[in-house]
From TrEMBL:
Keyword Transferase listed: yes
A GO biological process held by the record: polyphosphate metabolic process
Family matches, as Gene3D superfamilies: P-loop containing nucleotide triphosphate hydrolases
Gene Ontology MF, one: polyphosphate kinase activity
Lineage per the UniProt record: Bacteria, Pseudomonadati, Pseudomonadota, Betaproteobacteria, Burkholderiales
Classification via PANTHER family: POLYPHOSPHATE:AMP PHOSPHOTRANSFERASE (PTHR34383:SF3), POLYPHOSPHATE:AMP PHOSPHOTRANSFERASE-RELATED (PTHR34383)
InterPro entries found in the cross-reference section: P-loop_NTPase (IPR027417), Polyphosphate_phosphotransfera (IPR016898), PPK2-rel_1 (IPR022300), PPK2-related (IPR022488)
Swiss-Prot/TrEMBL keywords: Kinase, Transferase
Pfam families for this protein: PPK2 (PF03976)
Residue ranges occupied by any Polyphosphate kinase-2-related domain in the UniProt entry: 30-250
NCBIfam families assigned to the protein according to its UniProt record, in alphabetical order: PPK2_rel_1 (TIGR03709)
Entry similarity comment: Belongs to the polyphosphate kinase 2 (PPK2) family. Class I subfamily.
Name the UniProt record assigns to this protein: Polyphosphate kinase
Length: 268
């Protein structure tokens, strides 16, 4: 089922081929989805413990999407049962003056997973080929060079035992409008809203084009992109969790060998 949503290698992506309201991973009843999500969350906790104990493999989950696509909510739902000490979230906002003084990957390399770590990128290095391209802060040639640098960077991570799962949380323009309006109408959600959100929304067609180009150029065998239909929040959460559980399971993790010198030892 995942293959349908995996961005094909070396082919131009057309997001109109995907329905952001699709729900292939949900059940017939909301209660079924809640039970499955709880099951997946417990499985992730088990697999993350193995990842940490093994201390050889690394896992990187990249979450990208338009404003209101639910990156924060996905993290809360998917990792609800995982020991907070077992994961690390890296948030990428507007670059600081210090970060702008370096190459665009400089701020990223310092927060990639170490041995035994599971790291989530809430937004990521892809901001530097999305918003920068939409607003013409870089030209087409520079953007293509950055695609190459990103692919080489991710190849380096993969060669160092990092499993990379990249999820584009795909929502429709109508769904974004509803979610932004909810933030305006509910005083308790005003903290989530900024006037700039409306300005960026006006560039929706440009962002769609930028995402299609970026995902097409950077979906590789070692770091594939998945289009995650996200109009339905519980489907978004389930699909990301299913992807992550599958990826961790495929690592065939195990606990380190028992230490013979501890056999029969008694604590006095």
């Amino acid at each position: 089922m995942f293959e349908k949503y995996r961005v094909p290698l070396g082919k131009k992506l057309d997001l109109s081929d995907y329905d952001p309201a699709d729900t292939p991973f949900t059940g017939e009843r909301k209660g079924d989805d809640k039970a499955r999500m709880a099951e997946l969350a417990l499985k992730l906790d088990e697999l993350q413990t193995l990842l940490h104990a093994n201390s050889r493999q690394r896992v990187l989950l990249v979450l990208q999407g338009m404003d209101t696509s639910g990156k924060d909510s996905t993290i809360r739902a998917v990792f609800q049962n995982v020991d907070p000490l077992g994961i690390r979230v890296a948030n990428f906002k507007s670059p600081t003056p210090s970060e702008l003084a370096h190459d665009f990957l400089w701020r990223v390399h310092g927060v990639v997973p170490g041995a035994g770590e599971l790291v989530i990128f809430n937004r990521s290095h892809y901001e530097d080929v999305l918003i920068t391209r939409v607003h013409d802060w870089i030209d087409a040639d520079e953007c293509k060079r950055r695609y190459t640098h990103i692919n080489n960077f991710e190849r380096l991570l993969a060669d160092n035992h990092t499993r990379i799962i990249k999820c584009f949380l795909y929502i429709s323009s109508d769904e974004q409008r509803k979610r932004l309006q909810e933030r305006i109408d509910d005083p308790n959600k005003h903290w989530k809203f900024e006037l700039n959100d409306l300005k960026e929304r006006s560039f929706w067609p440009h962002y769609t084009k930028a995402y299609e180009a970026a995902l097409s150029a950077t979906s590789t065998e070692h770091a594939p992109w998945y289009v995650v239909p996200s109009d339905v929040k519980r489907h978004r959460n389930l699909m990301v969790a299913e992807l992550l559980v599958q990826a961790l399971t495929e690592l065939n993790l195990s606990y380190p060998p028992a230490r013979p010198e501890l056999a029969g030892m008694k604590v006095g």
